[in-house]
Amino acid sequence: MNYAGAEGLEFGDGNIRVDPSVATELPKGCRVVSTEGHGISFWANTGRIDVELVDGTQQSFFIKVISKELGRNMLRGEFESMKVIHTLLPDFVPKPIAVGTYEMMPDTHFFICEFREMIEEMPDPNKFAARLAALHEDSKSPNGKFGFHITTYSGNLPQMNEWEDSWETYFTKSMRLALELELKAKGPDPKFDELVPVLFDKVIPRLLRPLESEGRSVKPSLVHGDLWYANSGIDVDTGESLIFDACCFYAHNEYEFGQWRPFCNRFGAAYLAAYQSYVQISPPEEDYDGRLDLYKLRFNTHVSALFAQNETLREQVLGDIRDLVQRYG
Predict the structure, then answer these.
(1) Cα(299)–Cα(1) distance, integer angstroms
(2) For 120-199, where are the E strands, in sequence order?
């Protein structure tokens, strides 16, 4: 966890004290009536703040707190990600309120958004796919390129967000960074020395270059960036699907579904089929499965880097690369 504690400002146990910087971002004149821990995070301390407004009504906010400069950067990336999604689809994410730094503890940083009570159920495939398709289709890169205007973090590790004209170039850099982080976390392995050159020299060009050849092109679409089932929920009040914990960038829309390939994910075939009723598979269609397996590799590599002690994740990455090399190398 990237949280070093905040003595006197912890959530729950009857505490209603919040840092002055947090209080400034709450509605003017409101009174904090309760705080409590809420949710689970590997990287942050998360909570709920309940306030009473000047008219006597109550309102609730979700807060995430992380320490040090890394925490500040993580939360800035999340705030910017949630803000751009909310601008496009305000009913698809909780409204981001603020990102800032504790006045009383300058090495402690926070992100606040509206609190939405959720249940952990899978959304209706068609409704969810319609919203996700709208996010991908209606979004527009500010400069027509792939990337994002700020570094975003999946977990507590950075993603490659530098602007690139070509999706193949962007993804290649993103994959290289993920592998560098994985090797830094777990150490070298001679198997990588054999497989990785083929991945970059043959597999990636074979699967991604056709997307941008023979008159074809890839639209840079805004993606959530880490859309596994635990980053979604059902709004108790509206019954509609919500997503959160975004780490966005502009990408090939199909990149989003690499996260849906691992067996542990619950966004199964019904969700992909529903999505394809709104957005067609990119040509050449015969490479679709290979592209998604390549995108899955990028996700699995990053996850292996996040959990340095889990050797099973490295074996999974090596298995993914071997499979791609056998099919496309």
Answers:
(1) 20
(2) 153-154, 157-158
